[in-house]
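note to self: dont lose this again. the chain is below, predicted strucutre after it. 203 aa total, dont forget to put it in the shared folder this time
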Amino acid sequence: MLFEKLRDDIVAGNLSPGTRLPQQRIAKKYEVSKVLTVAAFARLEAAGLVESALGEGVRVRTIDREMLEESYIFREAIEAQAIREACDHASDREVAELRGLSALMEAAEEQKAIRMDQEFHLKIAKMSRCQRLVKELKQLHLLQMFVSQVTVGARVGVWPFSHMHLVEPIEKRDPLAAEEQMRSHIQTARKNGIQAFLESRSA
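---
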């Protein structure tokens, strides 16, 4: 529960990047043992939301370009494999639901469409029938929400709302075309995301 509480506060911006998290104070505030506090910190660090340094303790992770680049590289690798597997395992009903979600995204206002974007990509991961891919993508979505604290309102270029180009190769059961489309999709998101981050820093 401590992990979930701190995670939600970090993602929501209640604990901003760089905020120190003194172990003793956190343990006292939430009335938990130091052992549980250390365990929660370890899970938060594994999720990429906090960082620790010898003699400096634990603090909310600082958002920088290196962090963004790494998350997009990892996301491309995960989602490229997920969509390949989806071509082999997705049911016709699931593909139809994915097509419907894509259409809804195109008609939605920006903030709602961004939330639906995560749902869309998670649905593809679930269609892969690989729970490890689903778990890793959920972790990356947490980082994406965390980063949105500094990039919201600073989007550059055209946000790629249209996802129909990802649905079509799954319908055709073409894993090579699906992987190519997904890599192109994530690379576009990476370019826009980095530009938005840089713009937020220069504002």
